[in-house]
Amino acid sequence: MTGTGTLFTNIGQLVTPAAGVQRGAAMRDLNVTRDAALLVQDGVIRWAGPRADAPASPDEHDLGGVAVVPGLVDPHTHAVWAGDRLADFEARIAGVPYEEILARGGGIRSSMRATGAASVDDLVTLARPRLQALRHSGATTVEVKSGYGMEFGAESRMLRAIRDLQAEFQLVPTLLIHVPPTEDRAEYVQAVCHDLIPSVAREGLAAAVDVFTEREAFTVNETRAILQAGKANGLHVKIHADQFHAIGGTELACELGALSVDHLEASGPAQIAALAASSTVATLLPGVSLHLGLPAAPGRALIDAGAAVAVGTDLNPGSSPLYSAQMALALAVRLCGLTPAEALCAATVNAAAALGLADRGALVPGQRADFLALHSADWRDLPYTLGASSVRSVFVGGTAL
Ligand code: NIG
Ligand code: FE
């Protein structure tokens, strides 16, 4: 798109948080403009405001009076996997805990066996419809993790699949060090630090390194070594922490200046205070609470303490088969105590900040023109609606997909 750009008109409500990460009470400060217009040029917003004040443009696109919100950013998914976890699902419903299934060699380890046997092309074919579902739900940028490849070759195939899918979707790839091998654990951590991370960084296959820090996964000391290697190789860092037990992952994330710490279902006052005092974003994954029947993360307390809170789907076969970024936002309201306005902020600018991105998530001049036209004239239908999509059309860089 060149020249004067496209003027999107007849926007019943143009709704946006301010650009950049928002903390605490500022998460509720949405800007709502009625009868608005949006000027997009070269994929970027050039002007936004009341229709009556809009600059003239020969190219107008009438949006039919509906509400427009920023494209959602899903900051945490495991959208690339092979195999399924349907037997785990039945076992859990019959009362076997998630951690026990993992300790018995199932769960994440069973996804590793299936994913390790898949080719890059298989993985692309499996992941594409999942990413299409997320996009239809309003996600215009999606983070995707590796982590189902114990062997480094399998990790690399997962990251290559994500790279191939970047031709079709706006994706942010993360190297996830998920669970340790059952033998030679210290050697494995050394090889992750000295072989895997440097080679992934050299090939530009990941923007960040993530570790699952938990009793059944990596210790805080192992996590520290892995994330220090990530930082030494120029990568951002993040942690899956406090999912079942608060063993120190959140405190380590804050100490290392991690972009985000994700899960937090078992976080208490000490972890909330650490996040409130740090620049690390607290990412809620309410699909996990719903699917595993876990307590929800303390979203309300985190915001009241002044933390920056984001929300994601955690789309994965074991703990969150949730294919909708809109539903994640809606669940953050029901399960984590966020207000609708806070949830929109959590799913847009704050989710972008959890990925180190400051150029998207708000509908103000200079930001990427990624936005959603809803079916409704009232934006609150987005956090309100369950089980059907309130998103009518998805625009990426000003182009309808
Ligand atoms: O974010 N908790 C660890 N990792 C994923 C689950 C992956 C799986 O169960 O396959 C999560 O919940
Ligand atoms: Fe996860």
From TrEMBL:
<feature type="binding site">
    <location>
        <position position="318"/>
    </location>
    <ligand>
        <name>N-formimidoyl-L-glutamate</name>
    </ligand>
</feature>
<dbReference type="GO" id="GO:0050480">
    <property type="term" value="F:imidazolonepropionase activity"/>
</dbReference>
<dbReference type="InterPro" id="IPR011059">
    <property type="entry name" value="Metal-dep_hydrolase_composite"/>
</dbReference>
<feature type="binding site">
    <location>
        <position position="78"/>
    </location>
    <ligand>
        <name>Zn(2+)</name>
    </ligand>
</feature>
<feature type="domain" description="Amidohydrolase-related">
    <location>
        <begin position="68"/>
        <end position="399"/>
    </location>
</feature>
<feature type="binding site">
    <location>
        <position position="319"/>
    </location>
    <ligand>
        <name>4-imidazolone-5-propanoate</name>
    </ligand>
</feature>
<keyword id="KW-0369">Histidine metabolism</keyword>
<keyword id="KW-0862">Zinc</keyword>
<dbReference type="GO" id="GO:0005506">
    <property type="term" value="F:iron ion binding"/>
</dbReference>
<feature type="binding site">
    <location>
        <position position="76"/>
    </location>
    <ligand>
        <name>Zn(2+)</name>
    </ligand>
</feature>
<feature type="binding site">
    <location>
        <position position="314"/>
    </location>
    <ligand>
        <name>Zn(2+)</name>
    </ligand>
</feature>
<feature type="binding site">
    <location>
        <position position="240"/>
    </location>
    <ligand>
        <name>Zn(2+)</name>
    </ligand>
</feature>
<feature type="binding site">
    <location>
        <position position="78"/>
    </location>
    <ligand>
        <name>Fe(3+)</name>
    </ligand>
</feature>
<keyword id="KW-0963">Cytoplasm</keyword>
<protein>
    <recommendedName>
        <fullName>Imidazolonepropionase</fullName>
        <ecNumber>3.5.2.7</ecNumber>
    </recommendedName>
</protein>
<keyword id="KW-0408">Iron</keyword>
<feature type="binding site">
    <location>
        <position position="76"/>
    </location>
    <ligand>
        <name>Fe(3+)</name>
    </ligand>
</feature>
<dbReference type="GO" id="GO:0019557">
    <property type="term" value="P:L-histidine catabolic process to glutamate and formate"/>
</dbReference>
<comment type="pathway">
    <text>Amino-acid degradation; L-histidine degradation into L-glutamate; N-formimidoyl-L-glutamate from L-histidine: step 3/3.</text>
</comment>
<comment type="function">
    <text>Catalyzes the hydrolytic cleavage of the carbon-nitrogen bond in imidazolone-5-propanoate to yield N-formimidoyl-L-glutamate. It is the third step in the universal histidine degradation pathway.</text>
</comment>
<dbReference type="Pfam" id="PF01979">
    <property type="entry name" value="Amidohydro_1"/>
</dbReference>
<feature type="binding site">
    <location>
        <position position="316"/>
    </location>
    <ligand>
        <name>N-formimidoyl-L-glutamate</name>
    </ligand>
</feature>
<dbReference type="InterPro" id="IPR006680">
    <property type="entry name" value="Amidohydro-rel"/>
</dbReference>
<dbReference type="GO" id="GO:0019556">
    <property type="term" value="P:L-histidine catabolic process to glutamate and formamide"/>
</dbReference>
<dbReference type="InterPro" id="IPR032466">
    <property type="entry name" value="Metal_Hydrolase"/>
</dbReference>
<feature type="binding site">
    <location>
        <position position="148"/>
    </location>
    <ligand>
        <name>4-imidazolone-5-propanoate</name>
    </ligand>
</feature>
<feature type="binding site">
    <location>
        <position position="85"/>
    </location>
    <ligand>
        <name>4-imidazolone-5-propanoate</name>
    </ligand>
</feature>
<dbReference type="GO" id="GO:0005737">
    <property type="term" value="C:cytoplasm"/>
</dbReference>
<feature type="binding site">
    <location>
        <position position="178"/>
    </location>
    <ligand>
        <name>4-imidazolone-5-propanoate</name>
    </ligand>
</feature>
<feature type="binding site">
    <location>
        <position position="148"/>
    </location>
    <ligand>
        <name>N-formimidoyl-L-glutamate</name>
    </ligand>
</feature>
<dbReference type="InterPro" id="IPR005920">
    <property type="entry name" value="HutI"/>
</dbReference>
<comment type="similarity">
    <text>Belongs to the metallo-dependent hydrolases superfamily. HutI family.</text>
</comment>
<keyword id="KW-0479">Metal-binding</keyword>
<keyword id="KW-0378">Hydrolase</keyword>
<feature type="binding site">
    <location>
        <position position="240"/>
    </location>
    <ligand>
        <name>Fe(3+)</name>
    </ligand>
</feature>
<dbReference type="GO" id="GO:0008270">
    <property type="term" value="F:zinc ion binding"/>
</dbReference>
<feature type="binding site">
    <location>
        <position position="314"/>
    </location>
    <ligand>
        <name>Fe(3+)</name>
    </ligand>
</feature>
<feature type="binding site">
    <location>
        <position position="243"/>
    </location>
    <ligand>
        <name>4-imidazolone-5-propanoate</name>
    </ligand>
</feature>
